[in-house]
Amino acid sequence: MTEKQGTLVCVGPGVIVGAHISIRCQKHIEQADVVFVNSHPIMLQWIETMNTDVRSLQHFYGEGKDRRITYQEMIDAILDEVRQGKRVVGVFYGHPGVFAKVPHKSIAGARAEGYTASMEPGISAEDCLYADMGIDPGDYGCQHFEASQYMFYHRRSDPSAYLILWQIALAGDTTIARRLSSPEERRVLVDILTKDYPSDHRVALYESPILPTEKVREDWIFLSELPTARLTSVTTLVIPPAARLRKNDAVYQKLAGLGSHSK
Amino acid sequence: MSIIKTLELLGQDPSQSISDLSEKQRQEIQRLKDKAEFLNANMIIHEPDEPDDSPDPDRDPDI
């Protein structure tokens, strides 16, 4: 298929205003014909200083509106400009490919129509968490789940690795209308977790700042305290390992056998 | 200098901190935060939108 003139690049400005954006990401924004932004309003105001045609995607959200309609409207708005032959940039808070359907689907849609489309990585909240909390996912392994999905589906997690649950404030909310689930709903999550973790296991509530003037939140609580803990829309639950790594002797022996034959 | 520019410089320069700001600038930042509502702070993603959002079930070792 012959590539057409319009282009789409989805970029992430990182989490903290001013601190995380890459030079390449900033150049994309500055050189674009039109820039779509889905971020908090302060990040939006900052992006507006980089280009004269910056359009927020936030107005597509509506109280009680089906999110799939919202996302499709965002995708349509982005692709309409690409079809007009413009250099279009989508700016999505943090990393454009993490917890974001619109950039992935916009890129796939643009490519399907024969346009050049790509994604540039940004610094995500996960990246900030590793830096702020001093966690190396290589040490014991690290499992990430959206908290409600972890509850609603049969998931198998490994208590010898870190378990990180995102959007913990909404854990167990089935209404898709509230900003905070109830203590009773979060108690159900604790019930699930206590199959693998003691109720007095120490867990952390983590929040990355969004402004350089703010501080990191890292509050340690007992797992049993989660239902009544203070949570916000940006709180993440970090559960350290509760079990030691167990060596797989059978695999070791198998590999040792391979080693002797390959000499 | 606009408060957005101030925040940008603060984010870019690790030698600067909130203590370098005037009381007026701090109040301005607080006002900015107070009126900033991020509608999409939570992404409702726990349910896959479409069947093809789920991984290939043949790769699921449980099945």
Structural notes for this entry:
The complex is a heterodimer of chains A (263) and B (63). With 263 residues, chain A is an alpha/beta fold. In chain A, 34% of the residues lie in helices and 19% in strands. In chain A, the strands form 2 sheets. Chain A has a 5-stranded parallel sheet, sandwiched between helices. The mean pLDDT of chain A is 93. Chain B contains 2 helices and no strands. The model of chain B is unreliable at 57-63 (pLDDT under 50). With 63 residues, chain B is an all-alpha fold. In chain B, 35% of the residues lie in helices and 0% in strands. Chains A and B meet through α2, α3 and α7 of A and α1 and α2 of B.
Descriptors:
heterodimer, A: 263 residues, alpha/beta, 5-stranded parallel beta sheet, 5-stranded mixed beta sheet, B: 63 residues, mainly alpha, 2 helices, 35% helix, 0% strand, disordered C terminus
Topology record:
The complex is a heterodimer of chains A (263) and B (63).
Chain A: E1 7-11, H1 23-31, E2 34-38, H2 41-48, E3 54-56, H3 67-83, E4 87-92, H4 101-112, E5 116-119, H5 125-133, H6 137-140, E6 142-146, H7 147-152, E7 162-166, H8 183-193, E8 202-207, E9 217-222, E10 236-239, H9 249-262
Parallel strand pairs in A: 1-4, 1-5, 2-3, 2-4, 6-7
Antiparallel strand pairs in A: 7-10, 8-9, 8-10
Chain B: H1 3-12, H2 23-34
- What structural class is derived from the secondary structure elements of chain B? mainly alpha
Low-confidence stretches of chain A: none
Helix/strand order of chain A, N-terminal first: EHEHEHEHEHHEHEHEEEH
Uncertain runs of chain B: 57-63
Short description:
Chain A is an alpha/beta fold and 263 residues long. Chain A contains nine helices and ten strands.
